[in-house]
């Protein structure tokens, strides 16, 4: 039987534990991404911020586990994992698919547990109320790889390594399916502030679709636009890290 501590370690990576931190920053990966994407974030945060990078099932050391079928399933499974960490203020940060997941986790924390995150920072993702008809997850393997090249979020050396990329494709496809089949269910607005970040040349979300996140909170809303595409944050890492540190410090 898996103990609570072992289950917690499946989901949460603390690359630089800061037990005396005043706030926790929860980082949620993009489709096909893993917790290691946020290692630089963890390394760069001040001592006052404890970074929790989330590892989804179906990849890296969780490769033998089945992938989640939907954003809702991921949120249902992840929310109770985060509850013990809510002894400090939580700032949720999600990129792309991770932004939608962050929204659903924030909803569950508020609705079911009375925990209001100090901020939800969403990156490179349209608002839940702005659906698109997308079907990348239905493409063949070559089509899926081409989409990843288009978004420039995966090292080209990895994409050129046929054996490595084929091993990762099931998780990537599952994540795309979860993101693309997500259906927003209307409900109460969040009580936490929302910050929406977007690249001005992102093929997956327009500036207006990102601004529409303002519809989903009764708290203050911020909207910041950066030059770049879907992975603008790798180019503007310093500014994004500064913003996350600022939000966590405010908490």
UniProtKB/TrEMBL annotation:
The keyword Metal-binding does not apply. It comes from the Bacteria. Residues 26-244 form the Thioesterase TesA-like domain. Pfam families: Thioesterase. Keywords: Hydrolase. GO terms for molecular function: hydrolase activity. InterPro entries: AB_hydrolase_fold, TEII, TesA-like, Thioesterase. The keyword Mitochondrion does not apply. Belongs to the thioesterase family. This is Alpha/beta fold hydrolase. It comes from Streptomyces lavenduligriseus.
